[in-house]
Amino acid sequence: MDPILLLPELFWKWPWVSHLPPYNEHLLQDFGGASLALAVVLCAAVVTMERRLVLTALVAYLVSSVAHLLFHARHLEPLSAASAAGFVALLGAAVLLPAVLVWLAADGAAFREPGSAGTGRRPG
Q1: How far is residue 41's CA from residue 23's CA, in Å, rounded to a whole number?
Q2: How far is the C-alpha of 16 from the C-alpha of 12, rounded, in Å?
């Protein structure tokens, strides 16, 4: 279960969250639910390794990560320079990783074609 969904007050107490507008339990629980839903899609993509589902899940995560990075990059004032740099680096990694995975998955080489299991070859 998503910790934001279960314990929104605890999430709100983190320094990089609590400097935002006033606490809103509804908003945090909605965000937690959306994060949990995205995790379900990502897990389904990992389990099935179906190319279209993997690409869709990765692009959805990438869109979310880019929006998250852009928002926080504009709201670093309350953080120390070291905390801000670390936070932006962490959020940047959350953009870079799915971007690299989308690029790797785009050509389909990472996925087995039906009928090629165990042979190491593509049918042809």
Answers
A1: 28
A2: 9
What DSSP element (H or E) covers 6? Answer: helix 3-6
Select from 57, 68, 60, 59 the least CA-distant residue to 90. Answer: 68
Task: Give the Cα-Cα-Cα angle 121, 116, 46 (nearest 5 degrees).
Answer: 110
For residue 109, what are its two tokens? 């080489």
Rounded-to-10 torsion of CA 99, 102, 104, 106: -140
Q: Where are the alpha helices (DSSP H) in 7-114?
A: 8-12, 15-18, 25-48, 51-73, 81-106
Q: Which pair of tokens denotes residue 40?
A: 């379900």
- Tens-digit pLDDT profile for residues 67-113: 999 988 998 887 889 999 999 999 999 999 999 999 999 888 777 65
pTM, full prediction = 0.72
Convert the pLDDT of each residue in 94-104 to its tens digit.
999 999 999 99
Residue 52 tokens, joined:
């279209």
